[in-house]
C-alpha cells in the first residue's frame, strides 16, 4: 500500500539575527517570496536584526566594508580591506547597494514590510533582544505584530509542512 | 506546448496553463479560467489585469511591488482579489506568462 505524502512547504518561520543590508534583505526577499506563493509566513527579528524593525533605523541599514572578503569594487576587483577605514566608505557602499537594488525593483525595508504584511505575513520582535538593547514597543515599526519569547515563537512555528529558516 | 479551449476558443498554453500567446486572450476566456481557480471576476479584477497585461506587453517586469504603482488598487486589495498566490493567479487569468520575478 502506498500513501501519497504532500511535502509542500506550507509555512515558513524566518529568523533574522543580523542587521546588515544583506542579512535583512535575504530575510525580506525570502519572506515576501513565501507570501507571494501563498505560504504562511512568520519573520522573527532578534539581536542586531532588530534594526530592521526599529522605526528610525530600518531604512538606514548599512553593509560592512571591513572583513567582507566578497565585497568588490565596480569592475570586479576586490575591495582592499584598508579602504574600508576611509570615513564615509561604509555609507557610500551601502548607498550604492541600495541604489542597485532599487533598479531591480527591490523596495526600501519599510516598503518591503508593507508588501509582506499586506499579504498576511507576520513580523515579530524578540523579547530578550528588546530587553538587552533597551528598546520599547514604541520604538518598533507598526508592521510588528507582537513581541515574542522564544517559547512563543516555537508555538507560532508549529504545524505540518512548517520550516524554520535562520538567515 | 499544449492547447486548451476556453469559451469556444482554442488557445496555446504551457504545461502550467499559462498563455504563450497573450493576443489570444479575451475577457470571456478570463471568466472561464477564473472559474477553474474558483474566482468570480469583478471590474477590479479586470482593471488590475489590464494593468498587468499592458505592463507585460510593454516589456516591463511584473512584481508585487508594481501593483502599488498601478493607480488601480493597492497590494492588500490585490491579495484579497486573488487569494493565495496573487501574481501567479492574476497573470494566468490575464493570459500572460508566469512572471519570473522574485519580488
How would you characterize the largest beta sheet of chain B?
2 strands, antiparallel
The total count of strands of chain A amounts to: 5
Number of spatially distinct domains of chain B: 1
Strand content of chain B: 5-15%
CATH superfamily of the largest domain in chain A: DsrEFH-like
C-alpha geometry of chain B: globular
Instruction: Return the average pLDDT of chain B rounded to an integer.
Output: 94
Largest sheet of chain A: 5 strands, parallel
Rg for CA atoms of chain B: 13 Å
Q: Compute the number of helices of chain A.
A: 5
H and E string of chain B = EEHHHHH
What shape does the CA trace of chain A take? globular
Portion of residues within helices of chain B: 40-55%
Could you tell me the number of beta strands of chain B? 2
Order of helices and strands of chain A: EHEHHEHEHE
Tally the structural domains of chain A. 2
Would you identify the CATH architecture of the largest domain in chain A?
A: 3-Layer(aba) Sandwich
Provide an overview of this structure.
The complex is a heterodimer of chains A (167) and B (103). Chain A is of the alpha/beta class and 167 residues long. Chain A folds into 2 domains: 1-59 and 108-167, DsrEFH-like (Hypothetical Protein Ychn, Chain: A, 3-Layer(aba) Sandwich); 63-107, no CATH class. Chain A contains 5 helices and 5 strands. Chain A has helices spanning 21-36, 89-103, 109-118, 127-132, 150-157; strands at 11-16, 40-45, 122-126, 144-148, 162-166. In chain A, strands 4-3-2-1-5 form a 5-stranded parallel sheet. The longest helix of chain A is centred in the N-terminal third of the chain and has 16 residues, at 21-36. Chain A is globular and about 60 Å long. The mean pLDDT of chain A is 95. Chain B starts with a strand and ends in a 10-residue tail after the last helix. Chain B is 43% helix and 10% strand. With 103 residues, chain B is mainly alpha-helical. In chain B, strand 1 (2-6) and strand 2 (9-13) form a beta hairpin. Chain B has one domain. A two-stranded antiparallel ribbon of chain B has the order 1-2. Chain A binds chain B through residues 29, 32-33, 36-38, 104-107, 111, 114-115, 118-120, and chain B through 61, 63-66, 68, 74-76, 78-79, 83-88, 101-103.
Amino acid at each position: 500500500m502506498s500513501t501519497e505524502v504532500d511535502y509542500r512547504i506550507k509555512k515558513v518561520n524566518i529568523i533574522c539575527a543580523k542587521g546588515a543590508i544583506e542579512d535583512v534583505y535575504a530575510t525580506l526577499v525570502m519572506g515576501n517570496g513565501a507570501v507571494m506563493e501563498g505560504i504562511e509566513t512568520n519573520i522573527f527579528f532578534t539581536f542586531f536584526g532588530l534594526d530592521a524593525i526599529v522605526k528610525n533605523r530600518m531604512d538606514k541599514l548599512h553593509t560592512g566594508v571591513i572583513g567582507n572578503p566578497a565585497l568588490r569594487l565596480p569592475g570586479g576587483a576586490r575591495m582592499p580591506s584598508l579602504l574600508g577605514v576611509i570615513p564615509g566608505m561604509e555609507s557610500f557602499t551601502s548607498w550604492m547597494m541600495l541604489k542597485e537594488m532599487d533598479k531591480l525593483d527591490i523596495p526600501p525595508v519599510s516598503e518591503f514590510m508593507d508588501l509582506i504584511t499586506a499579504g498576511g505575513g507576520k513580523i515579530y520582535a524578540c523579547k530578550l533582544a528588546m530587553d538587552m538593547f533597551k528598546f520599547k514597543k514604541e520604538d518598533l515599526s507598526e508592521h510588528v505584530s507582537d513581541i515574542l519569547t522564544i517559547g512563543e515563537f516555537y508555538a507560532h512555528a508549529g504545524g505540518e509542512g512548517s520550516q524554520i529558516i535562520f538567515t | 506546448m499544449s492547447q486548451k479551449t476556453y469559451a469556444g476558443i482554442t488557445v496555446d498554453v504551457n504545461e502550467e496553463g499559462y498563455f504563450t500567446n497573450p493576443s489570444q486572450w479575451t475577457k470571456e476566456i478570463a471568466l472561464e479560467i477564473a472559474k477553474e481557480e474558483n474566482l468570480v471576476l469583478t471590474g477590479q479584477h479586470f482593471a488590475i489585469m489590464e494593468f498587468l497585461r499592458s505592463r507585460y506587453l510593454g516589456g516591463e517586469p511584473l512584481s508585487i511591488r508594481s501593483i502599488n504603482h498601478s493607480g488601480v488598487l493597492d497590494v492588500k486589495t490585490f491579495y484579497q482579489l486573488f487569494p493565495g498566490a496573487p501574481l501567479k493567479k492574476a497573470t494566468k487569468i490575464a493570459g500572460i506568462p508566469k512572471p519570473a520575478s522574485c519580488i
